[in-house]
Amino acid sequence: MGSCSCTRRHFLLSICFLQVITIIERQVFDFLGYMWAPILVNFFHILFIIFGFYGAYHFRVKYIITYLIWNFLWIGWNTFLICFYLNVGQLNRDSDLLNLGTGSVSWFEANGYGCKPTYNMAADDTFRPQRPERVEGCLLDYPLVEITHSGVQCALALLGILGAILISCIFLDEDDRCKWRSLNANKKHARLS
Description:
One of its GO terms (cellular component) is plasma membrane. It is a multi-pass membrane protein. There is one protein chain. By secondary structure, this protein is mostly helical. It has one domain (3-120, 143-192). The chain has 5 helices and 2 strands. The protein has helices at 3-32, 36-57, 61-85, 108-111, 142-192; strands spanning 116-118, 134-136. Strands 1-2 form a two-stranded antiparallel sheet. Helix 1 packs antiparallel against helix 2.
């Protein structure tokens, strides 16, 4: 492994580290808001980041390729979230799609910096989480915060894809060279015999 592969390897390890830090932060706020679909998908993302980190650290191409494929799916999920919070097409951020029917919402809707929520205390279902009727004074609206989270995840996933492709090419090229050398050595040995 030359210095070029070491640099690419460190790049991928750094991206994996940044992905873990940002996804743990996102996971905490999704738990606070009881957003069950994102919690589940974030958990899988953490597992695949571990695969990518392990593959880059121990030179395991199959783990890196698994991480690479997952990152394409991860970009799709985050693109869906961006469209969801922008109310694109039939998507509606006020629906129960992400909370799997529990009625909970993004933690940032009522708890963002400077937010002053107003609640309706005459709720029909006492077991559903209270959703604010109106939120005023927020420095950043919650859809913008969620879109920013998803945008950062997309950017890191693109960098992860780039790093995974670059490092996989190095490992696969070295495997091909080793196979070529062993084939040539076997041919020479067969001619001498």
